[in-house]
Amino acid sequence: MNNNLLPSIYAVGMCIFITACDSETVEVEKIVEVEKIVEVEKIVEVPLLDAVAPNLLFIDSKSEFKVDQQVILYFNEPLSDNTPNTAIQLRASKDDEPIAINIEILGSSIIITPLNKLNYDTAYYIESDLTIADQAGNVIDERLNVNFQTEPAPTLTVTSPTEGSLVVGSYKVSGIAQNNITQVLVSVNGSNYIQADNLNEFNEWSLTLDSTIYDDGITTLSVKAVNINQDVIEKNIEVTISNIDPIVGQWNCTGEGGYSGTQWFSITGATNDTLFSCWVSGWVRDGDNVIINRSNCSDLTFKPIFSNENNTLTVVEATYWTNGAVCNRL
Q1: Does domain 155-241 match CATH 3.60.110.10?
Q2: Which of 151, 144, 149 has its CA nearest to residue 73?
Q3: Residue 23: its pLDDT value, please?
């Protein structure tokens, strides 16, 4: 065997063949049997180079943003944690100064948190510089320019009683409150607030009050509504409480049937019978009517109609006294 020949090794089945070869001969030196040949193939993955900039996919898919919520921008790939806080600017208009915010990178999202509550029913603009990058360092190709609208402001309407109206006895304060109102409260002349009934499906609210526990005269009703953000909207109206019947007083009356003279109506009952004849022992209210109690005649019922800020009294629909009368307050 030529010692200058180089051996070669190859395997067939479960055997290893060692051969020495020159250009003319092949000599098999040795066959080695083995129980098993295990081939280990090592695969090395070579990462592809990311040279593509991240793209904005969408902003939170809400038509109206809450004034105290975060705004989230979603991109198509994870972003670099090194994106600076100054990369994003939030403005109420493009000419305004930026609003104070914090930004947080969370995977492929940018979470924008305003440091103060936003305004209701306002268009806001989000702009950026070109420092927003993915984890491979690729920065965005174009500056962001997106906008969103905040939710409508809460509204409160008082439908009853109306400004300047007269309230007597038990009366209802009612109205409409919209846009996430959680409760409506009513105060009379600065007293403690009382919660109105819960809003119904039509956003209506109401509260029944007893005017007799308050002094007569001009009275301020303060109504406030509170929404889910604890924002408060308030309305004030003035009414006149009058728990003394407007018929009480001294009247100069002229009747179509010839009756005329002065008629007294005291709180406890009429004291003069010029108008109604017969001796009057008192009077009481019966709904819209007044009943005159006459000791030596039948009771008389009539419907008083007041005008001229309750200074003119017209007597109509009187039993046993059908011609009526017109009285002026003295």
Answers
A1: no
A2: 144
A3: 44
